[in-house]
Automatic annotation (TrEMBL):
Active site: C84, C228
Species annotation: Marinobacter daqiaonensis
Annotated site, Important for dimerization, chain positions: F279
Chief place of localization: cytoplasm
UniProt protein name: Diaminopimelate epimerase
EC number from the UniProt entry: 5.1.1.7
Site description Could be important to modulate the pK values of the two catalytic cysteine residues, residues in chain: H170, E219
GO biological process: lysine biosynthetic process via diaminopimelate
Known role: Catalyzes the stereoinversion of LL-2,6-diaminopimelate (L,L-DAP) to meso-diaminopimelate (meso-DAP), a precursor of L-lysine and an essential component of the bacterial peptidoglycan.
Highest taxon above the source species: Bacteria
Region ranges (Disordered): 286-307
Family designation: Belongs to the diaminopimelate epimerase family.
GO cellular component, one term: cytosol
Length: 307
């Protein structure tokens, strides 16, 4: 006996990639139409019932002059975000591999501003992540004035936290040992702390010496990941401002090593690291219900160009 036939939605081509284990589903929305809905992204992100990823990266035509692409980033919970450092490296490798560009230096529009990516040898990419934002209102972080370290109350526990925006908001805590750091408890509590009105990524930084550090990051909208590029940049900025780190730091995250350079106040942060292409796939998306099709005018289509 067969049940009622459910009509099928479009077949979506994608590439699975990762940067040090921070994994992505990358979709070329220049060559194929792709309609975004947070509930669909959550299903695709599911590691048991979907493709499984920390972030979905969508490649679109640019909406600004003098940029090559627009790059949109969605966390596993379906929220759209401004910045993803590991994703930016994978994005650069993807657009070259797919022959969407033959440039080695690519300018990309993100929701956090325009960033520049430089493709090196053997899948390595250097990203100019822009100038870190330290003004609390712009991070956004609730504080009366800018400080290097803010005392913050988390469920009655007083902690010292640095707050940095790399286009996306980060809080950084200094720890003695990342292996025993309370990432699973403090991560979610600080991600949604009322002083971070847009939520935040929370880094746990262990300084080894002035040029080496270890880091674990509880990411906003995705949980702890094996690597967070923007988190590594924010941690080096925080460590440097605290007088603990030099301008060039090798930072070890659970998935491997990144090299971060920051010359100080007013300078952009440079991040260098590897990329990996895991497999190409296709997935049948669910069909849109007639109600959804009617309400479609309210959804965001990746082919819509926005300035
Ligand atoms: N994995 C990323 C950051 C992705 C976005 C982040 N979870 C946020 O919500 O801001 C990276 O490599 O930077």
């Amino acid at each position: 006996m067969t049940g009622p036939r459910r009509s099928q939605g479009p077949l979506l081509s994608f590439t699975k990639m990762h940067g040090l284990g921070n994994d992505f589903m990358v979709v070329d929305a220049i060559s194929q139409p792709f309609r975004l809905r947070p509930d669909m992204i959550r299903k695709l992100a599911d590691r048991h019932f979907g493709v499984g990823f920390d972030q979905l990266l969508v490649v679109e035509p640019p909406g600004l002059p003098d940029v090559d692409f627009r790059y949109r980033i969605f966390n596993a919970d379906g929220s759209e975000v401004e910045q993803c450092g590991n994703g930016a490296r994978c994005f650069a490798r993807f657009v070259r591999d797919q022959r969407l560009t033959n440039r080695r230096v690519i300018r990309v529009q993100t929701a956090g501003g325009v960033i520049e990516l430089r493709i090196g040898r053997e899948g390595w990419v250097t990203v100019n992540m822009g100038v870190p934002e330290l003004n609390p209102a712009a991070i956004p972080f609730a504080a009366d004035s800018r400080q290097v370290v803010y005392p913050i109350d988390v469920n009655g526990q007083l902690l010292d936290l640095s707050a940095v925006s790399m286009g996306n908001p980060h809080g950084v805590l200094l720890v003695d040992d990342v292996d025993t750091a309370p990432v699973a408890s403090l991560g979610p509590a600080l991600e949604r702390h009322p002083r971070f009105p847009a939520r935040a990524n929370i880094g746990f930084l262990q300084v080894i010496d002035r040029g080496r550090a270890r880091l674990r990051v509880f990411e906003r909208g995705s949980g702890e990941t094996l690597a967070c590029g923007s988190g590594a940049c924010a941690a080096v900025v925080a460590g440097h401002l605290r007088g603990l780190l030099d301008n060039r730091v090798r930072i070890t995250v659970p998935g491997g090593d990144l090299v971060i350079e920051w010359q100080g106040e007013g300078a952009p942060v440079m991040m260098e690291g590897p990329t990996a292409r895991v497999f190409d796939g296709q997935i049948r998306l669910p069909a849109e219900s007639p109600q959804r099709r009617r309400g479609r005018r309210q959804t965001v289509r990746s082919h819509d160009r926005r300035p």
